[in-house]
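tool_call: predict_structure(chain=1)
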Amino acid sequence: MILSKAAIREFPSSGIHPPDKLLALAARVPRPMRFLGVGGLGLVTDLSVFTALVAQGLHPLEARVVSVAAATLVTWRLNRAITFDRSHRRQGEEAMRYAAVTLAAQSTSYAIFATLVLTVLSSLPQAALLIGAAFGALIAYCGHRLFAFKPKSEQAA
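tool_result:
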């Protein structure tokens, strides 16, 4: 499903009116591809913050906690704006639903990452991050589509 005309005209609840051409272009891209694009930006954020923190001497397990938090903020705002249709929930309620799905997805991602970093990929923590992120992305897409951004049901009148 593509973005609604209202979503194309403005980012939800931001009051910002971006160029219609940019959002119209995004609306032509299938939702899974928009999700992957947003996820790609989140992954770049995750890897960049992670690599910078590890280079400063932080342990990879600690650095990943910070980098995941930064990436989650980036992906929530972008997914809310261009990937999924408006849920018609209050932003706080939607954020809590997003957080629940993200917690499940990122917990899986982090568990895989930690297992690999502490065993076979200790010398390549970025590879462990990528592998964990791939598994987390599968959980995240399904959870966000079916729960976090699922349109609110019409209330019986």
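agent: DSSP finds six helices and no strands in the chain. Proceeding to next step.
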